[in-house]
Amino acid sequence: MDLTLIVVLVIALALFFDFTNGFHDTANAMATPIATGALKPRTAVALAAVLNLVGAFLSTEVAQTISGGLIRGEGGAVAITPPLVLAGLVGAITWNLVTWLWGIPSSSSHALFGGLIGATIVGTWDVGSIDYSVLLGKIVLPALLSPVVAGLVAYCSTRLAYRITHRNDGLPDGRSGFRYAQIFSSSLVALSHGTNDAQKTMGVITLLLISADLQSAGHPGPQWWVILLCALAIATGTYTGGWRIIRTLGTGLTDVKPAQGFAAETSTAATILASSHLGFALSTTQVASGSVIGSGLGRSDTSVRWGTAGRIALGWLFTLPVAAVVGGATAVIARLGTAGLVIDLVIAVIVIVVVFRINARRRVMADHVAHAEAEVAETAALAIAIARLEPELEAAIEESIERDRAAQDGANRDSEAQEQRPAAGEEQR
Amino acid sequence: MIDWLAFVEVLIASLVGAAVVVSLYALGLRMLAVAGRTPYVPPVAFEEAITVLSPKQVKKEAKQVKKARKRNPYSPAVKRLALIAAYALFSLAGIVVLYGIYLIVPYFH
């Protein structure tokens, strides 16, 4: 296949990953303000989208970590090729969509890194093609430590917020005033998400351009059009909003009150800002989840649902390896050459379509039950009609014609019923 | 060559940053209460809302807050001072946040 065509396809796939990253991570910034009623969902996601767009233009530090550091080649050349980037992206997108369906706030960054690592190892048949000290120091350790750090910070902040506003006389303490603050703190999280996550895709596209010799390896910074496209993709994704994950983060872990939500959001923002200042590509999702748990612990009158927390942690544990395995498998197929690439793309499209279909089906719960009842009624009516007709039928030919017609009627009715289903693609709200 | 110091730096920076912002805002709210202007912000109503208060509950809570504002033991001078302090604290919290943004944008450096 033509190299430019591959590059264009991979950029398209990368932008789609950026889109899934956006809607997967809307929850990080906006789950808590939606949960406490500080913002309406539509307002919240619109705000997050705009700030993600702005944030994407602010800094390119993390993008350069990805395009300049992680995957090393012989003699300074980059070992990764466009088909391998494609394989890595397929792994990342698959895991992102599946976890979204389960409502697990998993790390989009880990999915991306996992996919790329798996694809690179398989593609080069060389376990040494990954710089493990970078992997450990810049990805694995931050992943383990960042939720703990964020949780600790959120715990302290929540204690502070409650202690300072506490009243001994039992009169209203004005803590609902934290709702206003939440608008700003969640905006800050959305902004820092933009400075962090949009850059991961920028880094990947830049990596791709370097590997295709369209950009010099000496300048690992992203081009302006790459920044623009990534910013738009993540903003669109954010606006689409992953309601399933918002629900998990906003209500699944602990009951969020305004003071606590503000403390959690501020902690998330502070942790992300501090670490992106130092060039860590850490996971916004893990930081946000850690903060929500920490803030729940900081309140004396509530509890943390550790079952949900455990489920989320399990999701994190699997993120990197599963994405790596999918990425690796895709890379194996990609080794077949052009045919392999086509197969990979077809598989990717099938995965995307299937996940969105499952999502649409679960969305129309109430309608779905009604629909099933109508189907049963239709079949019964059809059977009665056929039974009535049968005695009148003399010739076998006529009978078969009737059956065909009846079957066709049934098919028509089925398709009509399908059209009546609400349009797929939107989530259950 | 894992940079442990960097992790400690992140921990301390985020701990201090978050604590300062949260404390400033919370103190601001406290000062508002002292000034006899305890805020009341009901949750926004929307379909599938997670925090739901009926209009009746909102009315009741707003009334309680109003009552609390009236039962304020401080003199008018103290109240005025507290109000100024409250706005100063809110502004300070805002400035700290803006400084945080300033820090992460390479364009400014």
Descriptors:
A: 429 residues; 15 helices; disordered C terminus; B: mainly alpha; 3 helices; transmembrane (chain B); membrane (chain B)
Architecture overview:
The complex is a heterodimer of chains A (429) and B (109). Chain A has helices at residues 3-36, 41-58, 61-68, 82-102, 108-124, 132-165, 178-211, 224-240, 243-252, 258-277, 284-298, 306-334, 338-363, 365-389, 396-420. By secondary structure, chain A is mostly helical. Chain A starts with a helix and ends in a 9-residue tail after the last helix. Residues 73-77, 364-379 and 417-429 of chain A have low confidence and may be disordered. Chain B folds into 2 domains: 1-36 and 72-109; 40-70. Chain B is built from 3 helices and no strands. Chain B has helices at 4-34, 55-70, 76-104. Chains A and B meet through helix 1, helix 6, helix 7 and helix 10 of A and helix 1, helix 2 and helix 3 of B.
Brief characterization of the structure:
Chain A contains 15 helices and no strands. With 429 residues, chain A is mostly helical.
List the helices and strands and how they pair.
The complex is a heterodimer of chains A (429) and B (109).
Chain A: H1 3-36, H2 41-58, H3 61-68, H4 82-102, H5 108-124, H6 132-165, H7 178-211, H8 224-240, H9 243-252, H10 258-277, H11 284-298, H12 306-334, H13 338-363, H14 365-389, H15 396-420
Helix pairs in contact in A: 1-2, 1-4, 1-7, 1-8, 1-9, 1-10, 1-11, 2-7, 2-8, 3-7, 4-5, 4-12, 4-13, 5-12, 6-10, 6-11, 7-8, 7-10, 10-11, 12-13, 14-15
Chain B: H1 4-34, H2 55-70, H3 76-104
Helix pairs in contact in B: 1-3
Transmembrane segments (chain B): 6-27, 81-105
Keywords (chain B): Membrane, Transmembrane, Transmembrane helix
Protein name (chain B): Peptidase
Characterize the main sheet of chain A: none
Element-by-element helix/strand order of chain B: HHH
Q: End-to-end span of chain B in angstroms?
A: 28 Å
| Low-pLDDT residue spans of chain A | 73-77, 364-379, 417-429
Query: Taking Cα atoms only, what radius of gyration of chain A do you get, to the nearest Å?
Result: 26 Å
Main location (chain A): membrane
Region (Disordered) (chain A): 404-429
Pfam family, one (chain A): PHO4
Transmembrane segments (chain A): 45-63, 84-104, 110-127, 139-162, 224-243, 313-333, 339-358
